[in-house]
Design brief:
With about 425 residues, this protein is an alpha+beta fold. β5 and β6 form a beta hairpin. It has 14 helices and twelve strands. Strands 5-6-1-7-8 form a five-stranded mixed beta sheet. A four-stranded antiparallel beta sheet has the order 9-12-10-11, covered by helices on one side.
Length: about 425
């Protein structure tokens, strides 16, 4: 008996950030709506009405002002706490349909539905349940590989006849060929603008072209990753579901400031917050870092201002995940790089040379640092229970000048008692 055909389903939330905002603002259901990135800079989510008016993904908000005033487009600041909470609710519902699940991003999830009876009915039921229980509209694309499931999800979104669900496996070989001939190669998962141009130069314009091109030639020109993509389009699974996220080899915490910063204490306050976030992620994956890097940046788009972008790295005497230890080194690096004559627009911290906790290379010349595991565990527990930043080091949170600009932010609704909607 042959093995059953794999049924990978990609469940993707439609216009996710906008959909989250509309759940608690029904009056915005027909209003052209966009959500902006950090510091209200660029458009990162658009309603269908805003798309129809010509608003582009990633477009700077200042370029949309005239269009927004003419057509009544409403812009909101990103509300990441709300989006993360709504994402967790969606993923929790999806976990009921299969024990194998890969949360790919905040609004996308792969679910293994192989062997599920009445797959079409189950897919529509899944979609309806997520909508009924959370208010988030989703589309479902099903295929024998993750790449084809991603492509099927694209079709489910673009074609109203699919009613939000499209199963690539249900097509005959002739129908599959005819369908892939009509889709541009730029819609393939992992093929960006630059790669699209390179593929077109080799005569590959559609998904079908990529699917049937000569494999050794493709590998020589674009590498083994493109060969894997081709094999996935041919129905051979080269990427399995990653049910548990792998430990990161590098952790970066950085942010652009809401306004230019010139004072050293304000910079160190920002760096201290970045260290807290990075070390919390480090401890969450039960790891430790042996190398810390700090960078500062001025606004490279302001040609009328002097530019300065220093970066310093230092190996730690002992690998650690202790926020207090890392913060002392980061503050010293910041002070060493600081120059008072510049206006800084961005800063960040990078932790690398990451290893599992407990794998410690001792140094005869360096005394072993006292363990801070109980203190850090308590800090993480309190911040998880009462919210990020509830407990922090003394050098963190004294200044607000560097904080993000969020002039259009909606209430937290589900993550803050003060923002809980009243009926």
């Amino acid at each position: 008996m042959s093995a059953p055909v794999q049924q990978f389903a990609l469940v993707d939330c439609n216009n996710f950030y906008v959909s989250c905002e509309r759940i608690f603002r029904p009056d915005l259901r027909d209003t052209p709506l966009v959500v902006l990135s950090n510091n209200d800079g660029c458009v990162v989510s658009r309603s269908n009405e805003a798309k129809a008016l010509g608003v582009k993904m990633g477009q700077p908000w200042f370029e949309v002002h005239a269009l927004a005033e003419a057509h009544g487009i409403l812009a909101l600041s990103s509300n990441y706490a709300l989006y993360a909470d709504m994402s967790n609710r969606v993923m929790c519902i999806l976990s009921e349909y299969s024990p194998r699940q890969e949360v790919y991003s905040i609004d996308e999830c792969f679910v293994d539905l192989t062997g599920t009876p009445q797959l079409k009915a189950v897919s529509y039921a899944l979609r309806e349940r997520v909508s009924a229980w959370t208010g988030i509209p989703v589309c479902v694309g099903i295929g024998p590989t993750k790449t084809l499931a991603k492509l099927a999800n694209y079709i489910a979104k673009k074609h109203p006849r699919s009613q939000g669900v499209f199963n690539y496996n249900a097509l005959s070989p002739e129908q599959q060929t005819r369908l892939l001939t009509q889709i541009a190669v730029s819609e393939v998962w992992g093929v960006g603008r630059r790669l699209t141009v390179q593929l077109q130069a080799h005569g590959i314009h559609t998904v079908q072209d990529l699917r049937v091109t000569h494999t050794p030639t493709l590998r020589n020109a674009f590498g083994v990753l493109m060969e894997k993509t081709q094999r996935e389009l041919q129905g051979t699974a080269c990427m399995d579901l990653q049910e548990a996220p792998s430990a990161k080899k590098q952790i970066i915490a950085s942010r652009s400031f809401g306004q230019p910063v010139q004072e050293l204490p304000v910079l160190q306050d920002a760096i201290s917050s970045f260290v807290a976030n990075a070390c919390a992620k480090l401890r969450a994956q039960d790891s430790q870092a042996a190398l810390i890097q700090v960078f500062l940046q001025t606004n490279r788009f302001r040609k009328d201002q002097p530019q300065y972008s220093p970066c310093l790295a230092v190996p730690l005497p002992q690998a650690t995940s202790d926020s207090l230890v890392v913060n002392r080194w980061a503050a010293a690096l910041t002070e060493r790089m600081y120059r008072p004559d510049y206006l800084y627009k961005k800063a960040g911290v990078m932790l690398s040379d990451i290893t599992p906790s407990g794998l410690q290379q001792t140094d005869w010349l360096e005394p072993e640092p006292p363990t801070q595991t109980p203190l850090m565990s308590t800090l993480d527990h309190l911040n998880q229970r009462y919210g990020r930043g509830t407990v922090k080091v003394s050098s963190q949170g004294a200044y607000s000048a560097w904080q993000m600009k969020q002039e259009r932010k909606s209430p937290h609704y589900t993550t803050d008692w003060e923002g809980l909607p009243c009926v």
